[in-house]
Amino acid sequence: MTAPFLDPAHHPRVQTVALSRDRITLHLDQPADLVSPWAGEGTTWSTPVDADFPDVETTAPYPMLVSIGAATDGTVWLLNLEQTRTLHVTGTPSEVEAFARHVAVELATAPWAALVDVHTIAVGADLDDLNGTRLTHHRDPSDALLTATAEQVESTAHSGDWDPEDRTVLVLGATVDPATTRRLATGLAAHETRPAVAVLALGEANSDDTLEVRILDGRLHIDALAIDVQAALLPADDAAGIKRLLTVLDTHENTPMPVDEITVDGIGALVDRAGAIRPTLTEPRTPATLATGRTVLPEPELEYADAAALTVEDVHTLAPAVSDHVAEQVIAADPDLDRDLAWWHQGNDCPVPRVELLGSVTIHGHGRPGEVINRREHYAEIATFITITPGEPSARDIAEAFHISEERARVSVSNLRAYLGEHHLPKSVHSTAGPHGWTGYHLDGVLFDVELFTRLRARAQALGTLNDGEGIAYLVEALRLVRGEPFTDRRAGSWAWLNDRPDRPDMIAAAAAVDVALILHGHDLHPATTNLPRARWAAETALKAAPYDDSAWLALAQVADAEGNHAEAHAIRVAVDQRTDDERPPLDPPARTRRG
Fold this sequence. Notes:
Low-confidence stretches: 433-438
Structural class: alpha/beta
Protein name: Bacterial transcriptional activator domain-containing protein
């Protein structure tokens, strides 16, 4: 849209944007002629959302666009603060502050606003330092920044100067001196080009050079623009959650793999969620403990670090030693593993139902297909929820998680039972009473590839390199189960309950696949046990499960080097070093990545 306007000061003066499911509509402050794919005339232009826009390397032309609310049909409205220049917001104090909070947080996090500095003055103390330096809080309502900004606006009003990297939004609390706000509004209104400053002030307007916004009972009204929408409000608790999330995203530390705190017997009580024997049950890697052979990487750690994309710390974590006593416990706790693996590989001839989650989601049963046959993914989701929910979930639990009625939940379970067989999904009268007084559901004898993977990994760790490397063979079998990113090809809106779980089984499954692949990678690049084809397969399988995992990419680069494919290895390492997931430059790689 702005490509023909080489001077940013002469971009079309966008006032608002209406973004519906299928169209983008611009409302301009002055008439303009826009090029294809835009269609319209005067001050109103629109285009389909999926139009073919030219890929122009430029900074965002309207960095102060911010969402203000949504119409009843779902259309999201955005306001260009740089065009409105000064905004006064009135209404219920809590809603006014929630709106100001939303504007500040969105501009401090949106990629198109990367060059905008947001300053909250006498409001929004809880937002200070949100997303690095993009948002700064000033407690003093007479902060010197106000005077400095007013002077800057006034001094550039007629000069035509415009610095594309100097963009500021001031969010002013109700206690800021009205005279200061009025001075800013007057200076911004008189500016002849783009002042690159916008003001959002809480409280009654005290100048004619301002746009008035009213928020009443959750609705936002801008009479001058004929806008009446459900206001975009951000509660303080949600803002705090966003701030914590951004902090976590900038914290690059490994966290311990969660364990099942409820299970007290069986294999689940001995391993973590990814299938590794719990650290409390393993032994440190020492010459004495390694001599028993109860580890999947029996050679000195430095030898693996020299040959593979592993650090010494990786080897200690992925391949600790296991005592004979613990190994015997792990093996005894899962006597049917080999039988279940053989059954799984029988495919449709497997005598028990199967649920596939290590890739695209599906379910296989031997009962009446009925409703299930054309809705496999939905019923795989129901089966998974029943299996991984602690206790025995009731119809009410399913209804709440899937946002359906209890009656529909019971019908879904009944259809699933008909497909799996009643002995695999017993009727609730055969289950124990659930927490709501209703009896719950559980599955018996249903194979899940995720569970089979963790069982195979545990068996591998228990066996180590005994019996001519039998443990490695179990790791290979585990990795053979991985077909793609876990829990993928899901219907839109499905599996939302996963987001409410503190332990994300989909993410854990991906991490487990990478762990197993790295063990095989280390084993197969060691000079004593080199197997380059399998090392490449392991790395590529890890990337199927976790396409953005740096350690998996670095493992593939190391394999390529070992194969003599040095150009491929170099390209992979450069891509890892230069990758960025947002508008900011690449992060400095951690020591582990540098080592890879």
